[in-house]
């Protein structure tokens, strides 16, 4: 249960960070300058091309070393970055690349008349983002963001390779101590399943709230 709590904390933090990066990245790719668009394109392409385990190892070890080198160059003492903060940062960067594309696609799905009307009223870009773009794109983005949340809950298991005590690492340690590997890994699988089922219930409610006033989506086979 301690490992599950750590996994949920990392998943929540990484998903929130990735969502913030995704909103900024999508806005930059759609409305930014050519330099910003090119930088966002490089970021999303590289992160989605490199395996997540390689990125985690690279960002976890090289990233913390670069931060301490930068602090040292400015005359500050090195900092000991906690595993929780490092895990959230690493997975958040990975999540941000995928969230950028999900949100960009959702923004493109918004009827352009709404955007044009906001511009015709002289609405500033920031206000248009808060009042028009984000609320209107939410129903289109939720399915993709829901998948990213479920991926985040499982990607926390990759942090076991750097020794962070999330659910998989705690399970492995418990199995090594008791030699009851099957029992503990089955229990871990059940916990991951319960977390997914609970998440699906919450996501379903959020999606119904976001689609209020919109025509229902017909299910296949009916």
Automatic annotation (TrEMBL):
Principal place of residence: membrane
Keywords, alphabetical: Cell inner membrane, Cell membrane, Membrane, Transmembrane, Transmembrane helix, Transport
Domain ABC transmembrane type-1, chain residue ranges per copy: 4-203
Transmembrane segments: 42-62, 132-152, 180-203
Pfam family, one: BPD_transp_1
Topology versus the membrane: Multi-pass membrane protein
Classification via Gene3D superfamilies: MetI-like
Similarity comment: family membership: Belongs to the binding-protein-dependent transport system permease family. HisMQ subfamily.
PANTHER family on file: CATIONIC AMINO ACID TRANSPORTER, MEMBRANE COMPONENT
Protein's UniProt name: Polar amino acid transport system permease protein
Organism from which the protein derives: Aminobacter niigataensis
